[in-house]
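Narrative of activities, Objective 1.

The group set out to show that a structural description can be obtained from nothing but a protein's sequence at a throughput compatible with the screening campaign. Below is one input-output pair from the validation batch, recorded exactly as produced.
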Amino acid sequence: MLAKYQEALAELPKGTISEKQVKGNTYYYLKYRDGKKIISKYVGKKEIETLKQQIDRRHHIEAMIKSLLEEQKLAAKVLEGNL
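Output recorded for this entry:
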């Protein structure tokens, strides 16, 4: 299950969406880190809803992975008899 989540995570965009107001117009950017650099990519108005859904899905999957790893650690402790 963990491998399946990690595979799905690799296909989804990382980062956050930021809005910028210029002369009454709203522009959207996808911001993410690439090493030490922060990359900002323009996102068109037609693509913004799809991108928001993908980023929300990514956050959900990251939370599920974190939960699975915690359960895995707990199960290992129980099996070793350290709990």
